[in-house]
Amino acid sequence: MKPTLDDFDYALPSECIAQAPLAERSASRLLVMTGSTLDDRRFTDLPDLLAPGDLIVMNDTRVMHARLFGQKSTGGQVEVLVERMTGEDEVLAQVRASKPPKPGSWLRLEDAFDAEVLGRAGEFYRLKFPGDAAELIERHGRLPLPPYIERAVADKTNAADEERYQTVYARERGSVAAPTAGLHFDAPLLERLRENGIGIAYVTLHVGAGTFQPVRVQNLAQHDMHVERYVMPQATVDAIAATRQRGGRIIAVGTTTLRTLESVVNPDGTLKVGAGETALFVTPGYAFRVVDLLITNFHLPKSTLLMLVSAFGGMENIRAAYRHAIDSGYRFFSYGDAMLIHRHDEI
């Protein structure tokens, strides 16, 4: 029987949700899952858990200041969350308001500039900005912290979030959420990995607002997966091929990296170079072809991310791991602790 939405539900005490980062990035805990076997470790143990010749692949996207507040021309309050830029002065965005804004109306954002509502595109609005959209977003917007971080809407972004809700290797601006598995890495840990003979390569996947959208259908085949943009560099394709040739393993840092790698694999197992969009929806039964190990945080109930890790590590194994994590006081979600999951079909 195929799993349904309710198979990915679990009860999480509110005190388990991390509301702020730890003082040091790599000070988080790491739950290592090998089949049904669990091992409580520290994230700083990671270099010792991998082998020389392995390759870590990371997502180097950078989070935009994609949340803006303002008023409609009629005076009503609005909240805008930019999904992605579609041109130099146009964006797709979620718009929250008491009444939907009409095409041709204007939104005054952050008391700094006016954006024209061009129309709808499915669940999103097409907005036209008065100039360079990327520059206006970065200058006037706020870092779009996830909805379960309680200060996300009420407060301006604080200095700690500006630093800690970005990975240390973030380069390519375009996400509305951080690839949070990468938040645990700091410069000393990256250097230890290199010293241990573990390679590091990068992909880019710009995380969209859809990552926070709940699945609303029991039949998962009916879920409309959100689309996200990616770039697969030649250097990373070459590094993966060389790793395979020498018998090393591919470790994806985060579900975004895994989705990118699994989206660009050819029928013969080689990987495609270039840019594109993916709506890959990974659920139990998916046949993984690229990734051997996954570093990931703990995910929301009934989320597509929990479905992905359940496919990768095994549904019952993940259920047991989450029960153990809750009982053991692990910290959940974006600023929380991490897991290192061995692909269950190779155990």
Descriptive report:
The protein has helices at residues 46-49, 133-140, 159-164, 187-195, 234-245, 255-263, 304-313, 315-327; strands at 29-34, 37-42, 55-59, 61-63, 67-72, 77-85, 90-97, 106-109, 113-121, 124-128, 172-175, 199-206, 228-232, 250-253, 274-278, 293-297, 338-342. 20% of the residues lie in helices and 28% in strands. The radius of gyration is 20 Å and the shape is globular. The strands form 3 sheets. A 9-stranded mixed beta sheet has the order 2-1-17-16-14-3-12-13-15. It contains 8 helices and 17 strands. The chain has 2 domains: 5-63 and 162-346, QueA-like; 67-141, QueA-like (Thrombin, subunit H). With 347 residues, the chain is of the alpha/beta class.
Question: What percent strand?
Answer: 25-35%
Could you name the CATH class of the largest domain?
Alpha Beta
Low-confidence stretches: none
| Main sheet makeup | 9 strands, mixed
Classify the secondary structure makeup into a structural class: alpha/beta
CATH topology heading of the largest domain: QueA-like
For the record, the count of structural domains works out to: 2
Named CATH architecture of the largest domain: 3-Layer(aba) Sandwich
Overall residue-averaged pLDDT value: 94
Provide the succession of SSEs: EEHEEEEEEEEHHEHEEHEHEEHHE
The share of residues in helices is 10-25%
Helix count from the secondary structure assignment: 8
